[in-house]
Amino acid sequence: MASSTGMKVQVGDRAPDFTLSTQDGKQVSLKDYHGQKAVVLYFYPKDDTPGCTAEACAFRDSYEVFKDAGAEVLGVSSDSVAAHQKFSTKYRLPFILLSDKDGAVRKRYGAVSAFGLIPGRVTYIIDKDGIVRHVFSSQLAAERHIDEALKTLHSAR
């Protein structure tokens, strides 16, 4: 089981709850979705960088498919609320971006640095009951996160 000692959240674990600020400055908790819909929780390194922009735009372009599959997409990085607002507006992102300023949620999930420098790019598929059903980690294959998430959601139906 994942804990604050740095163990990674694994498939079958209960996803650790958290409350973070959205790009609109509202507070969102993972538990807000329990019993309502699945969550695609993706951690990414930084707003408005080439790989992260490609990943966010791929999530944007498939957002209706995620909604049809009964899931909400939540993107998480350590960028500020203001940076998220700018990034979201610039690329017309229809989903929520969450500001994990101190990286505490990233650490709780174990979505830590790749190569010891860059924050990790990790996607968690969490079912309606709050259980992690899939974890995909790839720093370089940003768009594969969307394919992996959709494959997991569709196989769960």
From TrEMBL:
<comment type="function">
    <text>Thiol-specific peroxidase that catalyzes the reduction of hydrogen peroxide and organic hydroperoxides to water and alcohols, respectively. Plays a role in cell protection against oxidative stress by detoxifying peroxides and as sensor of hydrogen peroxide-mediated signaling events.</text>
</comment>
<dbReference type="InterPro" id="IPR036249">
    <property type="entry name" value="Thioredoxin-like_sf"/>
</dbReference>
<comment type="similarity">
    <text>Belongs to the peroxiredoxin family. BCP/PrxQ subfamily.</text>
</comment>
<protein>
    <recommendedName>
        <fullName>thioredoxin-dependent peroxiredoxin</fullName>
        <ecNumber>1.11.1.24</ecNumber>
    </recommendedName>
</protein>
<dbReference type="InterPro" id="IPR024706">
    <property type="entry name" value="Peroxiredoxin_AhpC-typ"/>
</dbReference>
<comment type="subunit">
    <text>Monomer.</text>
</comment>
<keyword id="KW-0560">Oxidoreductase</keyword>
<dbReference type="InterPro" id="IPR013766">
    <property type="entry name" value="Thioredoxin_domain"/>
</dbReference>
<dbReference type="InterPro" id="IPR050924">
    <property type="entry name" value="Peroxiredoxin_BCP/PrxQ"/>
</dbReference>
<keyword id="KW-1015">Disulfide bond</keyword>
<dbReference type="Pfam" id="PF00578">
    <property type="entry name" value="AhpC-TSA"/>
</dbReference>
<dbReference type="InterPro" id="IPR000866">
    <property type="entry name" value="AhpC/TSA"/>
</dbReference>
<keyword id="KW-0575">Peroxidase</keyword>
<keyword id="KW-0676">Redox-active center</keyword>
<keyword id="KW-0049">Antioxidant</keyword>
<feature type="domain" description="Thioredoxin">
    <location>
        <begin position="9"/>
        <end position="157"/>
    </location>
</feature>
